[in-house]
Design a protein that fits this description.
211 residues, mainly alpha, Rossmann fold, 3-stranded parallel β-sheet, 9 helices, 8% strand
Length: 211
């Protein structure tokens, strides 16, 4: 969702920069890159670590609520599609291929963004706070495959971040990777595109033909 379908990464970046200042550190480019695509807990933990916040001072619930409030305020006025994303969703939907929205974003935020994406496009959605551990662990993609009743290797994922792509690889799901802000190191299960613009059904089937 974030960075693949919707151009939300710059907005999350602004919220993360504000949070870093809030806890007494600076959001360096390296720190921001390391949090890209993370679950809320993982992203907050990395900023806490950078700010040397002791365990006793880490209020995950309150700080996650603060982040949610900030990003939803920004989403209300500046939520944009990634290039080709809307056409890609229409393509897959018209082919009657079941789609599951898989995101590390928590359910509270995802439900708001589904109003823009069109929740009717998806047979289900799985969020990072609904599995044992979010990306880069494989649980979220394995759950999505289970929902549609296919083996992971028979599914196809779209990802933009190293963390998200790593989750597909760990789950055994082939992926089309469209890097949005951070380069994604190659894996044998990844295919690469510069954007979703011009995507065809043949592009999807080519992944399973090994091309």
């Amino acid at each position: 969702m974030d960075g693949t379908l919707l151009d939300t990464e710059p907005l999350w970046g602004r919220a993360m920069e504000e949070f870093a200042v809030k806890v007494g550190t600076r959001m360096t480019p390296e720190l921001r890159d390391s949090t890209m695509g993370n679950s809320s807990v993982d992203a907050l933990t990395k900023v806490y670590d950078a700010a040397l916040v002791p365990e006793s001072g880490r209020d995950f619930d309150a700080d996650e609520a603060w982040m949610v409030e900030r990003v939803l305020a920004m989403f209300a006025t500046d939520l944009r599609w990634r290039p080709g994303a809307l056409a890609a969703l229409d393509l897959v939907s018209a082919a009657e291929i079941p789609m599951v929205l898989v995101t590390n974003t928590i359910r509270e935020v995802t439900d708001v963004m589904l109003d823009t994406l069109g929740r009717e496009r998806f047979v289900a959605s799985v969020c990072g706070d609904e599995v044992e551990a979010g990306k880069p662990e494989p649980h979220i993609y394995r759950r999505a495959a289970e929902i549609v009743g296919f083996a992971p290797g028979e599914c196809l994922a779209f990802e933009d971040s190293p963390v998200g792509a790593a989750a597909t690889h760990a789950a055994g799901v082939p992926a089309i990777v469209i890097p949005s802000a951070v380069p994604v190191p190659p894996k044998p299960t990844y295919s690469y595109r510069e954007s979703l613009e011009g995507l065809t059904l043949d592009d999807l089937s080519a992944v399973f033909r090994g091309k």
